[in-house]
Design goal:
Protein name: EVI5L protein
Pfam family, one: RabGAP-TBC
Keywords: Coiled coil, Phosphoprotein
CATH class of the largest domain: Mainly Alpha
Largest sheet: none
Order of helices and strands: HHHHHHHHHHHHHHHHHHH
Structural class: mainly alpha
CATH superfamily of the largest domain: Ypt/Rab-GAP domain of gyp1p, domain 3
CATH architecture of the largest domain: Orthogonal Bundle
Number of helices: 19
Radius of gyration: 21 Å
GO molecular function: GTPase activator activity; small GTPase binding
Helix content: 55-70%
Distance between the termini: 55 Å
Length: about 350
C-alpha cells in the first residue's frame, strides 16, 4: 500500500521486516540504520502490541501518554484495531457477501468518492485502488446499517483507515467506531448528536473565551459554520494528514473529547487575530490560515489541547439535559404550529 512519502518510515519498515519473529511484532526488529530514539520507540511499541492486555489493564496511564505523543506510523494499523477491539469481529466474515449485494446509496457514494483526499496518491484518479476499496467499505457499511446508510464526511474517516490497513480490517474498525464512539449518532439522518456537540462546544466557548464568543455573535458567525466539519471528519478535512492523524490516534483511545479540546485550543491560539476580522475575513482565516499553523509542530497543538478545561460530567449530565429540553420545546412548538 502506498504509505505517505516518509523516507524514515519506509527505511525503518524495510529494516524491521527482515527478522520479525512469530509474535505480532518482533521486539528485536529495529534495523541498524535507525537512530537510537527511533529504535527504542520501535522496540517499545513492539512490546506494547505483544503484551496488549497487560498494557491496557496495568499500564493504562503510560499507554495514554505514549498515544498522545503519537503512535509510530508502521504500528498504527494494529494499534488502532486493538484500541477499538476490532481484531475478531464476526462482521468481517460477512464483508465479501456484502460486496455482492447492491445498496441504494451507491450513486451517492460514487459521487463523493472523487472528493475524498483528491490530492493523495492512493485516491487519485477514477480507477485508483484507493477509490475502489473506499467505495467497497462505504457500500458494505450502508448495507449493515440501513438507518444511517451513507453520510457525507464519513468517507474521510474510512479513507484514513484504508491508508493504514486492508479493506476488511478498515471495515471492522469503521463499524466499531460507529457503534462505540458516538459517530453513528453524529451521522444519523437527523444529525441530532451534531447539534448536541455544537451546543456543548458553544458552552465551552462562552465560558472560556467570552470576548471571542461576543465577537462571533456580533458578526453572526455561527459555531456550526466552522466546527461541524471538526466533529464530522475529526479534523481530517481541516489539517494536513500528519497533524490530523495525531488527533485521530488520541480519538481512538479517548473518544470525541479530543475534538472539543483541539477545537478550543485552536480558538485560544487565534483569538487575537479573529477578533479583528469580520465574518468574511473569519471564514477565510479558518480555511486558509488555521489548517497549516501546526504543520511543523503538532505537539504544540496537542499540548495546548490538554490544557483546555473540559468537564466530562458537566458535558454529559447538565448540557445533554439542557439540550434535550430545548429540542423537546422546539418539537412541541412545531406541532402546535402545524
Amino acid at each position: 500500500r502506498l504509505l505517505e512519502a516518509d523516507s524514515k518510515s519506509m527505511r525503518s519498515m524495510n529494516g524491521s521486516r527482515r527478522n520479525s519473529g512469530s509474535s505480532l511484532v518482533s521486539s528485536s526488529s529495529a534495523s541498524s540504520n535507525l537512530s537510537h530514539l527511533e529504535e527504542d520507540t520501535w522496540i517499545l511499541w513492539g512490546r506494547i502490541v505483544n503484551e496488549w492486555d497487560e498494557w491496557r489493564k496495568k499500564k493504562e496511564k503510560l499507554l495514554k501518554e505514549l498515544i498522545r505523543k503519537g503512535i509510530p506510523h508502521h504500528f498504527r494499523a494494529i494499534v488502532w484495531q486493538l484500541l477499538c477491539s476490532a481484531t475478531d469481529m464476526p462482521v468481517k466474515n460477512q464483508y465479501s457477501e456484502l460486496l455482492k449485494m447492491s445498496s441504494p446509496c451507491e450513486k451517492l457514494i460514487r459521487r463523493d468518492i472523487a472528493r475524498t483526499y483528491p490530492e493523495h496518491e492512493f485516491f487519485k484518479g477514477q480507477d485508483s485502488l484507493g477509490q475502489e476499496v473506499l467505495f467497497n467499505v462505504m457500500k458494505a457499511y450502508s448495507l449493515v446499517d440501513r438507518e444511517v446508510g451513507y453520510c457525507q464526511g464519513s468517507a474521510f474517516i474510512v479513507g484514513l483507515l484504508l491508508m493504514q490497513m486492508p479493506e476488511e480490517e478498515a471495515f471492522c474498525v469503521f463499524v466499531r467506531l460507529m457503534q462505540e464512539y458516538r459517530l453513528r449518532e453524529l451521522f444519523k439522518p437527523s444529525m441530532a448528536e451534531l447539534g448536541l456537540c455544537i451546543y456543548q462546544f458553544e458552552y465551552m466557548l462562552q465560558e472560556q473565551l467570552p470576548e471571542l464568543n461576543i465577537h462571533f455573535r456580533s458578526q453572526s458567525f455561527l459555531t456550526s459554520m466552522y466546527a461541524s466539519s471538526w466533529f464530522l471528519t475529526l479534523f481530517l478535512t481541516t489539517f494536513p494528514l500528519p497533524v490530523a492523524t495525531r488527533v485521530f490516534d488520541i480519538f481512538m483511545y479517548e473518544g470525541l473529547e479530543i475534538v472539543f479540546r483541539v477545537g478550543m485550543a485552536l480558538l485560544q491560539f487565534n483569538q487575537a487575530e479573529l477578533v479583528q476580522l469580520d465574518m468574511e475575513g473569519m471564514s477565510q482565516y479558518f480555511q486558509k490560515v488555521i489548517p497549516h499553523q501546526f504543520d511543523s509542530c503538532p505537539d504544540k497543538l496537542i499540548l495546548r489541547a490538554f490544557q483546555v478545561k473540559y468537564n466530562p460530567k458537566k458535558m454529559k449530565s447538565r448540557l445533554e439535559k439542557e439540550y434535550a429540553a430545548i429540542k423537546n420545546k422546539e418539537m412541541e412548538e412545531q406541532i402546535e404550529i402545524k
